[in-house]
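ligand=pyridoxal-5'-phosphate
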Amino acid sequence: MKLSSFGQKLGEDAGINSLMDDLGEAMASGGDVVMMGGGNPGHLPEVTDRLQAIMKELVDDPEQFRRLTGVYDPPQGEKKFIASLVELLNQEYDWGLTTENVGLTNGSQSAFFMLFNMLAGEHPDGSHKHILLPLAPEYIGYGDAGLTPGLFRAVRPEIEELGDNQFKYRVDFSQLEITEDTAAICVSRPTNPTGNVLTDGEMLGLEELAREHDIPLIVDGAYGTPFPDLMYTEASPRWTPQHILCLSLSKLGIPAARTGIVIADKPVIRALSGVNAIMNLATGSFGAMLAEPLVRSGEIISMSRDLVRPVYRRKMESAVTAFREAMGDECPWRVHKPEGAMFLWLWFPDLPISSLELYRRLKARGVLVVSGHYFFPGLPDEDWRHRHECLRVTYSQDEADVARGLQAIAEEVKRAWAQG
Ligand code: PLP
């Protein structure tokens, strides 16, 4: 079989595919594996119970069950969910949305694929436009979502040392270059992989640049406000017609329902719905119908704030404590200030081995993490040592397992230093 450029780029060479295969194989090999590599949400019994009750109502009501299984939704998505969400967001934030500002997709991952390729790549005037990622490291899932090469340009951050083994990445506005070939700016907030939450000031700075250059600011809120609200710091949600805000139901606990939500200016939603119709005919109704009662009542917000967020916050705090105890101060280490999401981003300055080698040694011990070097899509600066000195560790799963995994990381880092 001879694959096209598209087939090769997405089907064979994509970094995310080899990473997922690698993690999948390690899991399938059985044995005692500590899984700190993926992005699966934790299991929260209260959330599961509530979803199960709604599901039962849907299944028991013939009319609802027919809508759930027997009807294609319009390409923009399930109408009742969209109407309820618009009402909720206007009530909470006064964003002045109408139903034409919201589109649903099969997971937010597919929304990014459609948006990036709708905006960047070849334009009818012959230009080739790119998406600017103003703060690397960024989400690995963007890197492979371009149909044409060179779709992303990323910028190195400023690194602020906070003391107490913590640091924080900041947008280096002096290095941001927006040209006539910049199609959009994109950030995840909170950021996967670092748990960073860009400050309100940084967000306003990016918004100003977007407005000045008449391009959208794409904000990936897969972990953000208003749901699942995995935020452990003060940060204001914001939407204007300049923004394309992407939300997801996945991290609330239903990744299998594959429901992404895009909130944007009407022409963006119209174009997105057109692309969605070609790629998917319709978005699946399942997630939207399951979550609609929670959105209509506003429960999705209280559930996120009062139930989901505290669980992850506790997991984050106990992971940081466990790692601090395991590392001590024998050799250099830092953790990115964990302000959101479900990851610790560990940095080992001057480590004698690469993060990829550290990942391999941990995998041999049955501890799965992700080497940090994957998370720099669009950053040409291969020689920047920092990108080979970091690990992403997911803390969403069982706390005792996470502590065991963190202990193994500390041991391997100390061994690497001892071997020199
Ligand atoms: N954005 C970020 C930052 C993510 O971490 C993920 C998944 O892990 C996604 C988007 C895509 O999530 P989904 O397609 O499940 O909505």
